[in-house]
C-alpha cells in the first residue's frame, strides 16, 4: 500500500495511500477547534466514504490503516429512505435492474427446459432490455458521483447532512480515482448490455447474427463488469484484495465481484451453435439468475451503508 506525504502546514498537510498511483485514503491533521478528545490528532477519509458523503474518521496518527479506522463503524439498519442522496438512487436503480434480469432468467429457464411458463420468449426479451436500461441509469449516476467526489482532489470535514459544496461537473477525468475507473468501465458494460438485449429482440437472426449481435456484446459487457468489480475491490481494500467479512462495504464489493463472475460464466456458455441452440442454455440461465441475485443483494446493502449509527 503506497503512502505519500503532501507537504504543508497545519490542516493542509496530508498523507495519502492506495494501490499503485491511485488514492484510496487520505489523512490530514486536525485543527485545534476540530478536536473532540486528546487521542485523535488526525482525520482519515477513504475514497468510498468520501464518494458517499460519509464523515471522515478521527484517528490517532497519520498512518492508521483505513480498515482499522473503519472497524468500529456501525450501520443504522432502521433507516432506508434518502432520495436526496445520489448514492440512494444508484442502489435503487441497480436493484430494479437486477430484479428484471432475475425474472427474465427464471422465465427463460422454464422455456429452455420445455416446461410451460408465464412468460413468452418475446416478453423475456423485453424484460432483459428494460432491466439493462435501469443498469445503465444507475451506472451513469455512479460515474457522475465518482467524478464529483474525487478524494485525490482533497476533502473537508463533511457529513452526510452537511456535504461540502462544490460546482457539479458533468464531464471530466479523475485519473487517480479507482472509483471513477470502476464506474466508467461498468458504464461501458451496461451500454454493451443495452446493445445485447436490444439485439436479442430481433427475430430474424441466424446463428451467425446471434453470435455477432447478441453474444459478442454480452461477452464484452461481462468482461467490463469483471474489470469494474475488481477495481471496486481494490478501492475498498486499498490493495489488490482483502478479506473483511465483518465489514458491510466488503460484502458489497465481494458480492458484485461474484455476480460478475456468474455473468461471465453465463456469457461463455451462451454461444450459439450452427444448429441454433446455445452451448449450455440451462447454465446460461442459471448464471444470469445467480449473478442478478448477487447484484440485487449488493445494491440493497448499499442503502444501510449510507446510514451510520
Write a compact overview of the structure shown.
The chain has eight helices and five strands. The chain is an alpha+beta fold and 309 residues long. A hairpin with a 6-residue loop joins strand 2 and strand 3.
Strand order of the largest sheet: 1-2-3-4-5
Instruction: Report the total helices.
Output: 8
- Helix-strand makeup class: alpha+beta
* Uncertain segments: 7-11, 158-163
Strand content: 5-15%
How does this model look, in words?
The chain has 309 residues and is an alpha+beta fold. The protein folds into two domains: 2-70, no CATH class; 86-306. It is built from eight helices and five strands; from the N terminus they run ββββαβααααααα. It has helices at 47-51, 66-70, 86-112, 121-148, 178-199, 207-237, 248-268, 281-301, and strands at 2-6, 14-18, 25-29, 42-46, 57-59. The protein has a five-stranded antiparallel sheet with strand order 1-2-3-4-5. It is elongated, with a radius of gyration of 22 Å. 43% of the residues are buried.
What order do the helices and strands come in, and which of them pair?
Layout: E1 2-6, E2 14-18, E3 25-29, E4 42-46, H1 47-51, E5 57-59, H2 66-70, H3 86-112, H4 121-148, H5 178-199, H6 207-237, H7 248-268, H8 281-301
Helix pairs in contact: 3-4, 3-8, 4-5, 5-6, 6-7, 7-8
Amino acid at each position: 500500500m503506497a503512502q505519500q506525504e503532501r507537504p504543508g502546514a497545519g490542516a493542509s498537510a496530508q498523507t495519502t495511500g492506495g494501490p499503485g498511483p491511485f488514492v484510496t485514503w487520505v489523512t490530514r491533521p486536525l485543527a485545534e477547534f476540530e478536536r473532540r478528545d486528546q487521542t485523535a490528532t488526525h482525520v482519515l477519509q477513504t475514497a468510498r466514504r468520501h464518494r458517499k458523503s460519509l464523515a471522515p474518521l478521527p484517528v490517532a496518527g497519520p498512518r492508521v490503516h483505513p480498515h482499522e479506522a473503519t472497524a468500529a463503524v456501525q450501520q443504522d439498519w432502521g433507516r432506508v429512505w434518502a432520495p436526496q442522496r445520489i448514492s440512494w438512487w444508484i442502489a435503487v436503480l441497480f436493484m430494479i435492474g437486477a430484479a428484471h434480469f432475475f425474472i427474465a432468467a427464471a422465465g427463460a429457464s422454464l422455456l429452455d427446459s420445455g416446461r410451460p411458463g408465464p412468460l413468452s420468449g418475446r416478453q423475456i426479451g423485453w424484460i432483459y432490455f428494460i432491466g439493462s436500461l435501469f443498469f445503465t441509469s444507475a451506472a451513469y449516476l455512479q460515474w457522475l458521483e465518482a467524478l464529483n467526489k474525487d478524494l485525490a482532489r482533497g476533502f473537508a470535514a463533511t457529513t452526510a447532512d452537511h456535504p461540502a459544496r462544490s460546482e457539479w461537473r458533468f464531464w471530466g477525468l479523475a485519473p487517480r480515482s479507482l472509483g471513477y475507473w470502476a464506474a466508467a468501465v461498468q458504464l461501458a458494460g451496461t451500454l454493451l448490455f443495452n446493445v445485447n438485449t436490444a439485439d436479442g429482440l430481433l427475430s430474424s437472426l441466424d446463428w451467425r447474427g446471434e453470435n455477432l449481435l447478441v453474444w459478442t456484446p454480452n461477452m464484452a459487457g461481462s468482461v467490463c463488469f469483471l474489470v469494474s468489480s475488481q477495481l471496486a475491490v481494490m478501492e475498498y481494500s486499498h490493495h489488490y484484495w482483502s478479506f473483511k467479512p465483518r465489514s458491510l462495504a466488503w460484502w458489497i464489493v465481494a458480492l458484485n465481484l461474484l455476480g460478475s463472475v456468474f455473468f461471465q460464466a453465463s456469457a461463455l456458455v451462451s454461444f450459439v451453435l450452427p444448429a441454433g441452440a446455445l452451448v449450455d442454455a440451462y447454465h446460461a440461465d442459471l448464471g444470469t439468475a445467480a449473478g442478478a441475485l448477487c447484484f440485487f443483494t449488493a445494491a440493497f446493502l448499499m442503502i444501510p451503508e449510507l446510514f451510520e449509527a
